[in-house]
């Protein structure tokens, strides 16, 4: 149970961090605020980190 909670916390932290980074990078590149692929990237990062945390 505790292991799953830790996995979820790690996945959320990494997903949010990737989203913040991707959103800022996209804003710098485009010059305006828009959301799109950043959500997909954050979800993928969260899922991958959840799977990796489960294997450790």
Structure overview:
This protein has one domain (2-55). It is 86% helix and 0% strand. It has helices at residues 2-30, 37-55. Helix 1 (2-30) runs antiparallel to helix 2 (37-55). The longest helix has 29 residues, at 2-30. The model has no long low-confidence stretch (mean pLDDT 89).
Report how far apart the termini are: 15 Å
What structural category arises from helix and sheet content?
mainly alpha
- Oligomer designation: single chain
Average pLDDT, all residues = 89
**Which shape, going by the Cα principal axes?**
elongated
* Count of alpha and pi helical runs: 2
Q: If you compute it from the alpha carbons, what radius of gyration comes out, rounded to the nearest whole angstrom?
A: 13 Å
Please tally the β strands and state the result: 0
Topology pattern, helix = H, strand = E: HH
Strand content: under 5%
Q: Regions with pLDDT < 50 over 5+ consecutive residues? A: none
Furnish the topology, listing elements before pairings.
Layout: H1 2-30, H2 37-55
Helix pairs in contact: 1-2
Notable characteristics:
mainly alpha; 2 helices
Short description:
The protein is an all-alpha fold and 56 residues long.
